[in-house]
Backbone:
């Protein structure tokens, strides 16, 4: 009996690997973890692809009640947890794997594409990305500056910073931070910190729906990108570090909209 963590990619039902489909189709129950990302197609299309009804797994089920649901069910039969992107890219899924191990439940992993590789579409070298930053929605009496501090440290080493943007999946309607909101937040932090690390003239790369055929990549100054409409989620923001000349050429293409990939 096995708990399978199956990555389903970044776009739609066509991204699920043959191995992932085969395993999920044979499981007695299939869950979809939906709070760390956003499904790029109706859930019914995923159900049709694997031939199984899918049950939604929210944060509470995965992080607090897994022992009574996922892990307990996996003691009796094979259970699948579908994860948007790659199943091992988020801390919550690594934590689940460790909890399964402690409960003597076997775990199978089916990898897939994730945002950490899809950012290569920008033309920036993947091996030059430093620590990833998460930009969260400010709240009353809560204005974290960690993302700004990460950018500072990465820039000191000439490294690019991938900024993952906040998701409030459990709100009704769900809220997804935009590239524009992320830039505004970083500019506000800059006004307080005054380290001239993220100013209106800072080069940034805004991305939306990477991994799908409706992606958008735009490069330019923070002031320019602040006013670009990136459309539907999910979005991410990249703050480049020191650029190789090939990276510079690639970003110039994203500035002028002449690069078109089918």
Residues:
């Amino acid at each position: 009996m096995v708990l399978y963590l199956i990555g389903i990619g970044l776009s739609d039902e066509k991204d699920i690997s043959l191995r992932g489909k085969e395993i999920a189709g044979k499981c007695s129950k299939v869950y979809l973890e939906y709070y760390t990302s956003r499904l790029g197609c109706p859930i019914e299309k995923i159900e049709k692809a694997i031939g199984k009804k899918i049950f939604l797994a929210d944060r509470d089920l995965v992080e607090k009640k897994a022992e009574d649901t996922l892990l307990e069910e996996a003691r009796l039969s094979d259970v699948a947890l579908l994860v948007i992107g790659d199943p091992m890219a988020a801390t919550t899924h690594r934590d689940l794997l460790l909890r399964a191990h402690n409960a003597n439940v076997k775990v199978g992993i089916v990898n897939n594409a994730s945002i950490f590789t899809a950012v290569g579409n920008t033309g920036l070298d993947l091996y030059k990305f430093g620590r990833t930053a998460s930009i969260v929605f400010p709240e009353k009496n809560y204005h974290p500056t960690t993302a700004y501090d990460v950018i500072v440290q990465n820039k000191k080493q000439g490294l690019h910073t991938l900024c993952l943007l906040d998701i409030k999946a459990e709100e009704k309607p769900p809220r997804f931070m935009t590239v524009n909101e992320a830039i505004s937040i970083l500019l506000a932090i800059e006004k307080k910190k005054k380290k001239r690390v993220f100013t209106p003239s800072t080069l940034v790369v805004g991305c939306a729906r990477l991994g799908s055929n409706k992606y958008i990549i735009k490069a330019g100054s923070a002031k320019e990108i602040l006013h670009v409409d990136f459309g539907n989620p999910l979005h991410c923001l990249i703050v480049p570090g020191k650029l190789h000349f090939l990276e510079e050429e690639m970003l110039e293409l994203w500035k002028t909209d002449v690069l078109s990939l089918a």
User: Anything to note?
Assistant: Residues 161 and 207 are 13 Å apart (CA to CA). The domain at 2-113 is CATH 3.40.1010.10 (Cobalt-precorrin-4 Transmethylase; domain 1). The chain has two domains: 2-113, 116-256.
